[in-house]
Amino acid sequence: LFGLMIGISFMVKLPEWLITWKFGVGIGVISIAGLLVLVSYNNRFISSLCSRFERRIPSRIADRISSCYNSFIKALTMLKSSRHLTAVSFLSMLSWAINGVIIYLMFLAFGFSMGPWAAYLLVVVNSLAVMIVVTPGNVGTFNLAYILGLSLFGVDKTQALSFSILLYVVTFIP
Questions:
Q1: Which residues, 6 or more positions from 166, have their beta carbon under 8 angstroms from its beta carbon?
Q2: Cα–Cα 20 to 30 A to 80, which of 11, 14, 95, 152?
Q3: Measured between alpha carbons, how far is 69 from 46 in angstroms, rounded to an integer?
Q4: pLDDT given at position 142
Q5: CB neighbour list of residue 80: distance below 8 Å, 6 or more residues apart
Q6: What's the pLDDT tens digit per position in 67-83?
Q7: Which residue from 117, 110, 108, 101 is spatially nearest to 152, judged by alpha carbons?
Q8: DSSP letter string over 133-154?
């Protein structure tokens, strides 16, 4: 995703504030990736930190946190395998490519005069926005990401909202 964002920044004229912002996001992404590597290779240390934390909170909440953490570690451990990592990476890139094509076709349907790279910029913006689930199905977060992304290209908020609602229907209803 970070590589896609860097590539897009060379293809699409971005506002100056966004160019500066991308380096902050890049540092954040690299930091999170480093933390994930640390967790996947040294999960005993992280487990001991979590158990210290869990002792200080109610057991019902601690059990939920422990369950989420163990599930997360199990998924990370699977990605140590190069076969699994390759498959996940390929499927992620394929998903982003298909989403970019769908968004570009919707640009044409709405009469927006933006190129395909703008569609991939919106894929990046949306991917970053929906990483943390705020509402079921990311309703609202999904729409806000597209409204903000389309505003970078001067699209009116009403048109952007219509675009995001139709894209949500096209993406999630089938």
A1: 106
A2: 95
A3: 10
A4: 82
A5: 40
A6: 877 777 777 777 677 78
A7: 117
A8: --SGGGTTHHHHHHHHHHHTTT
